[in-house]
Each structure stands twice: as C-alpha cells, then as structure tokens.
Design goal:
The chain is α/β, with parallel strands linked by helices and about 450 residues long. About 20% of the residues lie in helices and about 25% in strands. The chain has three domains: about 1-115, Alpha carbonic anhydrase (Carbonic Anhydrase II, Roll); about 155-365, Roll (Carbonic Anhydrase II), CATH 3.10.200; about 380-415, no CATH class.
Amino acid sequence: MLSVPLKLGSENALLRKLGLDVGAHQEAIRDGNSYTVDGTIDLAKELETSTSQPWYWYSGGPLTPGKCPDWGVKWLVMETPLEVSLEQLNSLELPVSGVDSTVATKAIDTQSIARSFVPEHGVRLGSCSNANDLHNDPSCWGAANPICSSGTLQSPVNIDTTSISKVGSESFLAKASWKPLSGLRLRNDGNSLGFDTTQMGYSTVIGPNGFPKFYQVTSVALRMPSEHLIDGKQYPAELQITHKNQKTVLELEDDDVIITSVLLDFGAESKLLKQMLPETIPAAGSYVTIEKPVDLQWALGPAIDGPFFKYQGSYTTPGCAEVASWAVFENIMTLSKEQWEAFKAVFPNPGNNRPVQALNGRTIAKNTMEEAEAVDYKFFLNREMGRDKQETNPALILFPIVGTLLLCSTIMTALFQREDPKRKAESAGGLEQKPTTYGRGYNQF
C-alpha cells in the first residue's frame, strides 16, 4: 500500500482530474456510484512532489474491514504531504469529519519502521526452506551467512546527498587504468550477467601507509533494477566493476576490494550494454564470447570522470563479507527500454538486486577515496626499512668522520715507540757515533 498524506491548502490537481469538486460528478460521489474520468492521468507525475521525497516502510494490516492476507500489508508512507482544498474534501460529503472517522492509531516499535528503504524481510519471496531460496532470496542469505542479516556494514545503501560527511576534489578517472579487452566470456551465473577477467587493468589508491595499492579488475556484473539508491531514487540498472587488491603479481586478496558502480536510466541505447546484451543471451550456467574489444574506460568515461560517493560496505552477493570500499558515480548513464526488456526477459521480476541496507551510522564521502597522504621516499633496502635521504641531516656525516679520525689517532698512539738512546748512539745513523775504520787502512801498504 502506497500512502500519500494530504494537508489543507490549495486545490489538488490530481483530485481535480479525478472529479473531486467537479459538479458533474457530485451526485455520483454522494451516492457512492462510479463514473468515467475523461482524459489521461499520469499518476507518477502527479504524485512526484511526494514520491520523490523520503518515505517510511513498515509491515501492518489493512485499514478497511476484512481478512488480512497471510503476508500482511506492506506500507510505504510518503513523508511529504500533498495539498488539498477544503472544497475538495467537502465534495466527499463525509457523514462525520475526517478526524472522527479515522481508526485509532496503534503503537508500533520504531525499530520496525525503515526510512527510505525496504528491509530484506519486506521483500521475502520464499520460506528459506530449500537451497534455491537460500541462494536466490536475499532475505534468506542470513541462514547460511549470519553476517548478511547481522552485519552493520552491509551494501547496498540509499545515498542521502544532504548528509555527506566529507567533500574532496578527486576524479576516479585519474585512478583507473582500464584497457580494452577482446575475447571476454559473457556469462550468466543465474543471478547476474557479466564477465570475469584479470586482464582488464587496475585502479590505484594510496594505502594507509602512504604507498600505492593496485586493485585489479576481476569482474563486471549488470543488475536490474539498481541496487544503490540516490536520495531514495532507484534506477533501472546498475553496472558494478569489482577490483581486488593485488597482494603479489599472482595473488589477489578477496578481503580487500573496491567496487565501482555506474547507475543507468532510460534514454539512448548503451553501446556497452549492446555488447553485454547480445541477440541470444546465454542461459543460466553458460556463456558466449564477446569478440569485439570491451572498453570500460571509454564507454563509462562521462560517469567515472564525474562526482562519486564513497562509503565502506560489503559484497551484495551471498557471503556479504564487509570488506568493500564502494565508489558510486553520480553522473547517470543511459540504456534503452529495449535493452532493459531484453535483460528482464532472462532475469524477470523481482530482479537480481539485493534490497537496500541500513547505514547504521556510516558516513558517506564525496569525490574522495579518503586516501592517506602519499609518501615520497628514495628507498634503500625495502618499504618497511626504507628511509628518506632527503630528510636526513647532512651534518650527521661528521659523526663517522670524527669517529674514524679518533680511532686512527688511538691506534697510531698505541703503536708509536721511541728508539732506545744507546741503540741510537750505536746505529749507523746516530749523530754521536765515533769514527770507525772498516777494512784495511792505507797505512798498511
């Protein structure tokens, strides 16, 4: 049930079109008879003032007599009321005033009310009694993975642009080093349509220690409708690109990921989705090969070069590990209704998206990945033992020089020995040596 509150004010255009306060329909309204409404009524447009604003969800019952269905009644109550004139209300000719005719309100636990999102149990499809429900119904994931229902950093979320905690000036395009790749296998895993690859490039983000971390693109998945909402608005589709931290050249970390998200609305045909939605979409468990190169950076440039929202979250697939940094781009790309219909033919309602999760106090930043300040070291040894020589005081070189001189002086002093005076007098070089004749003298001849 969708409930739009009304408040006294100016005449309501929608109610006017429906015949309230129109003389031709007064008798039919008074007697409870039906009548024909002339012209076309665009209900979405007429209610947009209210439906485009925050709303509340809760599970309850009907407001009219009768048996409540087994599944109850799921209520969506708009926060912003529409105006209605007193004349339009009087045209209903209620036997008692509106206040007197209302049913007494019943208290409800505030924890049972969700603001601008539907909790998982609100869209439960099955009973979580079989393996199919455990895998396909997000409200059943918690049975096998408790963090899916008890975690506090779950994704997706509704991004409230009026509650941004930090605003930077970064562009994700400068961080992305994606390259075209041909021969990709477009696979249908039964839950999403996309491809897996480790050859499409990477994104670079500065880690907590100031050194760059390289996140390798590992998969691309298409979901309809979108999983993330912006200011309560859900879009027809969302393309998610998952990156995993490159621990080594051959080793990627599953518990350190960046997921970039591009939202799509109806409009011109998407050339990228034209490659991802061939004439024959592969059946569940199979794949087809995309022969022409897929160039994400070119196809999604207008989005990834624009504003983006960043928050800490989780995978939106079973497992729900809370290890993801999300970058949701604000600029919306387009897809055609024909492309949407082709996808929905394979993945019918209610879609392959996980419902929105509660923020639980998390902050959302804009235009920044909240990176640490990059260090600029001239290394020796390695990262852990490196030093920045530019910051070393040149005067420190005096310590080894002075130490070397002192050591040499000590050694020289210790080894120095004066010559014995007696030996000095008898030596060939002594100044006090008496004349001595060696060999035969000439006087013997």
